[in-house]
Design a protein that fits this description.
The protein is an alpha+beta fold. It has 6 helices and 14 strands. It folds into 2 domains: about 70 residues, no CATH class; about 110 residues, no CATH class. The chain is about 20% helix and about 30% strand. The longest helix has 11 residues. The relative contact order is 0.17. This is POTE1 protein.
């Protein structure tokens, strides 16, 4: 694994960190005094790397505004779901021409009302593995249960006129064990009925990029980012790894 490999690299006296076998070694001092871009081969020791924990290397990146964000934790998502459950489902927004709705009341003391809207294709429900559904009033545990069965899950809440997405601090879409987020700064969320255009396609694929586009969401991408400090006795060079 990468973490143990990095630790081994720190223990070695000298580590070859780049390939370019056709190039001679260049001292870091020379590289630091050169204009970029250039291609070099170096021999250097890894002095430090950040972050120390690999899970902290995963960020969310907006390709439009170039912002980098921390990946929200599950507690924040759960809090937003609990807040959305306070809004009672609007019965007039159930069982439309493009989705079927099922509502029930939980048996616990809170007696939450949960509604699941199953999106139809050609007026028929698809197989679970091909189905997109929307859930109102669900808990984090209930949402994750649905993602194990259905292709796509979108948490929503009722307004007077239409269903709407939750706060973009929460994922706007869940597919399997992947949470998809939108950029708060660059997104202009549209009403949920915009999804009906995909449902009307000959073979709805429910791809996250297409769903984000019709909902006015600027999709954030998961990126892997690290900083390495390299030394060779002539200078110290910071190297950054940024990859999708």
């Amino acid at each position: 694994d990468l973490e143990s490999h990095l630790q081994r690299c720190q223990q070695l006296p000298v580590t070859v960190l780049t390939d370019h076998q056709d190039l001679n070694n260049t001292e870091l001092k020379t590289i630091l005094n050169s204009m970029a871009p250039q291609q070099y081969r170096i021999r250097a020791k890894l002095r430090t790397y950040k972050p120390q924990k690999l899970y902290q290397s995963i960020k969310l990146h907006c390709s439009k505004c170039k912002s980098l964000q921390e990946v929200p934790d599950g507690d924040g998502f759960d809090f937003i779901l609990q807040g959305s459950a306070i809004t009672a489902p609007n019965a007039e927004l159930q069982n439309t021409s493009w989705y079927d709705s099922v509502m029930w009341t939980t048996q616990d003391e809170k007696q939450r009302k949960i509604v699941i809207h199953f999106v139809k294709h050609d007026e028929m429900l698809q197989q679970p593995e091909d189905t997109l559904l929307m859930i109102e009033g669900g808990t984090l545990k209930e949402v994750w249960k649905l993602t194990k069965i259905f292709k796509c899950v979108i948490p929503v809440r009722s307004t007077e006129d239409d269903l709407e997405l939750l706060d973009l601090s929460a994922p706007f879409l869940l597919q399997g064990n992947i949470k998809y987020y939108g950029c708060k700064q660059c997104s202009t969320p549209k009403p949920i009925k915009s999804l009906s255009s995909i449902a009307a396609e000959q073979r709805p694929s429910w791809e996250p990029t297409e769903i984000a586009q019709v909902l006015g969401i600027e999709l954030l991408q998961y990126v892997f980012i690290m900083k390495f400090t390299l030394i060779d006795g002539t200078g110290a060079l910071n190297a950054y790894l940024f990859d999708y």
